Amino acid sequence: MKKMSIKKDDLVVVLSGKDKGKQGKVLEVQPKSGKVVVENINVVSRHTKPRKQGDQGGILKKEAPLYACKVQKVCPKCNKPTRIGHKVEGDKKVRICKKCGAEI
User: Measuring CA to CA, which residue among 8, 63, 66, 56 is closest to residue 33?
Assistant: First the structure.
């Protein structure tokens, strides 16, 4: 189990690959494999066979997981991709933007 700084519903930008530069919202985080599923990023075609009578088969488009190291969080304040830092305030731990220092 890896500790991940990217959480569900974060806005991220893709750093490498076929979708480089695109932004999207994180739909799912998989800490065991170190991967994330991002909305409308890394879309693959899945050929499905009808399982029951009356089911529709065909080609479905769905998002495939990509490694978390290939995406970077976009800061809501400075609107730039940034690394995530951690700061302890009182009894809770908060994520901060390494570029502008704003709380995420």
Answer: 66
